[in-house]
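[worker-b] picked up task from shared queue
[worker-b] task type: protein-ligand structure
[worker-b] ligand name resolved to adenosine-5'-triphosphate; SMILES cross-checked against name lookup, match
[worker-b] sequence length check passed
[worker-b] input payload:
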Amino acid sequence: MAVVDEPVLRLSGVGKHYGGVRALSGVDLEIAQGECVALVGDNGAGKSTLVRILSGAHQPSEGTIAFAGRPVRFRSPADALEAGIATTYQDLALAPHLTIAQNIYMGGELLLRPHFLGLLDKARMRREARGYLDRFGFAVNDLDRPVSDLSGGQQQAVALARALRWQARVVIMDEPTAALGVGETRMVLDLIRALGAQKVTVILVSHDMDDVVAVTQRIIVLKRGRKVGEVVTARVSPSTLAHTIMTGEIPPEASAA
Amino acid sequence: MRPLVARFGTALAACAVFAFFALTADGFLAPYNLLGIAKQISHIAILAIGFSLALTAAELDLSFANIASLAAVACGMLVHTHHSPVLAVAAGLGLGLAGGLLNGAVVTLLKVPSLIATLAVAAIANGLAFLLTGGVSVVGRWPTSFTAIGRGVWLGVPMPVWWMALVALAALWFLKQTRTGFRLVCTGEATQAAALAGVKVKHMKLLGLALSGLCAGLAAVILTASLSSAAPNMASDMLLTAIAAVMLGMTMFEPGTPNIPGTLVGALTIGMLANGLVLLGAPYYVQDIVLGLIIIASVATSASVLTRAAFAV
Ligand SMILES: Nc1ncnc2c1ncn2[C@@H]1O[C@H](COP(=O)(O)OP(=O)(O)OP(=O)(O)O)[C@@H](O)[C@H]1O
Ligand SMILES: [Mg+2]
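[worker-b] inference finished, payload out:
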C-alpha cells in the first residue's frame, strides 16, 4: 500500500492520562483515505481510549491530530461528526423505539426551506435514507419500522447509514461484531467492504482476529498504551496475529513500517 | 408493526366507557353534558399535555399543579386589583414559565433528579401561593374582557375547549414537524445516543420542563377566568387527574411513549368516568379510587420512559 496522498488522519505523539493512570502514550499514526485499518491489542491496551480521542468524546493530554491535512481539536462527538469522523459504538448508540429514518437523521435533520423555521423535511429524509441503505445492499421496505425490530447486522447498517449521512470520511467501528452471530457478522464485514469501495476510511476495533484479517489492509498493534508496530494484513494469519498481540512482538516479515 | 390491539385497545375501552354511560346514565348524551365534560377536562388536558412534553424529554414534572395554583392567584389578584387583564394574563403565563424554567435549571444545572426537584419546586410554589393570598381566595366581579377567556362561547363551543384544542394541535405539530420537537423526543428515547449525535440534551430537558410550566400557567389563566376566582390550592387535585390522563394515554397510539392524542383520549376517558359516576349517583371519593387504579394499571402495562425518568439520577 503506497500512501501517495496526504493521509486523512495523522497522529503525532498522542497520549492520554486519566488522573494518574496512563492510558496512552506517544502514538504516531497515519491513515490514508479509503484505507481499512484495524486497531488491536490486549485488554487495557488503549484501543478504546484512542477511539474516544478520535471521536471527540475525550481530549488528548498531549500530541496533535491532523484531519485532512489540518490540525484539529474536537471538543465533543458532535465536533468530530461535523468534521467528518463518525463512530459506531459497541452498544450502537441507536434509539431503539425510533424509526430507521429517524435514527439516521437524529441530530442531523434535513429541513424545509426556509431553514430558520426548523421544519422537518420528512419526505427528503426518507428518500435519502433509503439511498444510503441501498448503498449497503440493505433493501428496506418500511423505513418507519423501529430499529429494535431489526437484526444486529441491520442495525449496524443503520448506524453506518448515519455515518454516510454526515458524509463521514472516516468511520470508526468499536467491536461491531461482538454481539453478532455468524451470518450477521458476515453481513457487517460486507458493510465494511462497501464503505471501502466508497473511499470511506474505516478504523476497526476488534478482538476477533478472523474479522480483522478478513477486511483490513493494515493492523495497528497497541500494548499497554503504546503502539508497538504495524502489520500488513496480507502477511499474517489470524493465529500469528493473536500471538503478536500477546507478546507485543511484530514478526519482521509482516511489519509494515 | 405493533399489534392493533396494543395501539388502540385503550381507545376502544374509552369507547366502551362512553357507550356504558350513554346507556345507563340519564342525560349523559345530552349535548350540554357532553360539552360540559369537554369543558371540565380542558384544564386537565392542558396540564396533562405539559406533563407529557416534560415526560417526552424523560423528565417528571410533579410541580405543575402547584405552579398552576400560584399562577392563578397571581393572575386573579391582578385582575381583582383592577390591573389590565393583559397584565394579569401575562403574569399567569409568565409565572408558569418561570416555574418551569426553575425546574429545568435545578435539573440540568444542579443535577437534581426531576422527581425530587419538581417536588421541591411544588412545595415552594405552594408556599408562595399561600403567602401571596394570606390563605384566602380572591373572588370578585371581574371585567368580562378577562372572564371571557374562560366563560366565552364561540360557535357554540366553550372557550376552554378551544384553548385545549389549540394547545393539543400546537404540541402535536411541534413534536411531529419541527426539529426541536424531534430532538425532544430523541432526548427522552435515548439520551446518550442523542447526545452522541450532537443533540444538546440538557437544553431539551430544560425546554420540556419549561413548556410544562407554560402549560400550567395557561391552564391557570383559563381556570381563573372561568371560575372568576382564584385560590392558593385550586389546582392541587388536578395533579393526579392529569398524570392519570397521561399514563392512560401512554397505553395507546404509541404505547410506552407519552403522546398527545393518547393524552387527550386519556383526559376525555377520565372526564367521562367522573361525570358518569356522578350522574349514576356514586359518591365523589369513588373517583379517587378509580384514578388510582387507572394509574397503576396503565403504568404496569406500558411505562418505559416514565420509569427511566423517575429513577434516572
Ligand atoms: N475513564 C477512565 N478512567 C481511568 N482509567 C481509564 C479510563 N478509561 C480507561 N482507563 C485505563 O486506561 C487503560 C486503557 O484502557 P482502554 O479502555 O483504552 O483499553 P482497551 O484497549 O479498549 O481495552 P479492552 O480491550 O478491554 O476494551 C486501562 O488501563 C484502563 O484501565
Ligand atoms: Mg475497549
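[worker-b] attaching auto-annotations
[worker-b] The beta strands of chain A are 9-18, 21-31, 36-41, 62-67, 70-72, 85-88, 170-174, 201-205, 218-223, 226-232.
[worker-b] releasing lock
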